[in-house]
Amino acid sequence: MAQLRWLGQRGIECHTQLVVTPGLNDGPIFEQSIRDLAKLYPTIQSISVAPVGLTRHHKYGHRPNTVAECNAVLDTVEKGQARFLQKLGVRFVHATDEW
Fold it and tell me: What is the pLDDT of residue 62?
């Protein structure tokens, strides 16, 4: 966040991405991340939300999102879009087509 504020102080706008990993940054952490980034609008111009991509060779013990988790993320994005459209005049948060 400090680096993003630093960029904003210098007039640099950013488009960001949140990669949602189950058990790491989903649920309330995901929602808080969106709120935190929105506080930096217009420095932060948008958030792209993507699911974690894993190969069978990954070593970190993570797993892909379940269908229910995907639906929860999409619901959060949709509700956020309505809220940000009203508050900021832009949808601000967007789901990638991988969902």
Answer: 94
